[in-house]
Amino acid sequence: MDTKKVVLITGGSRGLGRDMAISLAKKGLNIVITYHSNTDAASDTQKQITEVGGRSIALQLDTRDSGSFALFATELTNRLKKEWKTTTIDYLVNNAGFGHHGMVTDTTEEAFDELMNVHFKGVYFLTQQLLPVLNDGGGIVNISSGLARFSLPGYSAYGAIKGAIEVYTRYLAKELGGRKIKANTVAPGAINTDFNKERFEQAPQVVDIIASMTALGRVGESTDIGGVVAFLCSDDAAWVNGQRIEASGGMFI
Predict the structure, then answer these.
(1) Pairing label, strands 6-9, 30-35
(2) Fewer Cβ in 10 A, N or C end of the chain?
(3) Distance (Å) of CA 28 to CA 154, 219, 223
(4) What are the residue numbers of the active site?
(5) How far apart are CA 98 and CA 11, in angstroms?
């Protein structure tokens, strides 16, 4: 039986999720990543995990489809048993998501529902489904956004749903305390990944504007987030619970 702790990262095949996976592998954890459809990206992430001495499993998951979560949980436990002779995980990182920019007057109900299904409903019910396979004393990290604290035009739906995630996380911390499971939120600021690539390419001046709003004078990179998540998935963070940690370089302070 592999005695290393196991972390599951949704959307771990690229962007912030990829750096989280690599950072956690460097800390000595076994990694399970999920991907939506890009098998090449998942394979590339697994290759990078191997290069830093880690071990990984990649599983397909559509976090919009809550009806698939029970089957996913079964597939997860089967793969864990086959690869590492365990049926449980120690940490769950709810990271999968996508961006959306639209003014209140322009946001469609369809776009809103897509955001809700991935960023809140999916997180809520995937977590619920995986609680039986999450070890006592483990942890949950939910990825929020700086946009839940500060407001920029065009992000009302995204920011409001991320705000819901932060409230949900506090309830997880309260309700799972009896099992010694910690729940925390990491809220990235504006990060230069494929998540924001289209927006930055359409209006490159946005990068300079964001940098001017940030105390450290630049936009974030994916490598600015992975280490924060890795810290929360370690014994060093054993007394950190129910907290929101913003990693934004000091935007709007």
Answers:
(1) parallel
(2) N
(3) 40, 29, 18
(4) 158
(5) 10
Task: Tally Cβ neighbours within 10 Å of residue 71.
Answer: 12
Dmax over CA atoms of the chain, in Å, equals 55
pTM higher than 0.85: yes
| Residue 25, phi then psi, degrees to nearest 5 | -65, -40
Mean pLDDT, rounded, for 119-130: 98
Residue 94's H or E segment, with its range, is: strand 89-94
Distances (CA, A) of 146 to 24, 178, 203, 251: 23, 30, 20, 8
pLDDT in tens, 74-118: 999 999 999 999 999 999 999 999 989 999 999 999 999 999 999
Q: Which amino acid is at 197?
A: K
Contact by Cβ (8 Å): 229, 93: yes
Q: Is the separation of the CB atoms in 159 and 144 below 8 Å?
A: no
3-state class of 110 per DSSP? Answer: helix
| Block residue for tokens 């409230």 | 167
Torsion angle, alpha carbons of 147, 152, 157, 162, to 10? 0
What average pLDDT does this structure show over 175-179? 98
Backbone angles phi, psi at 214, to 5 degrees: -110, 130
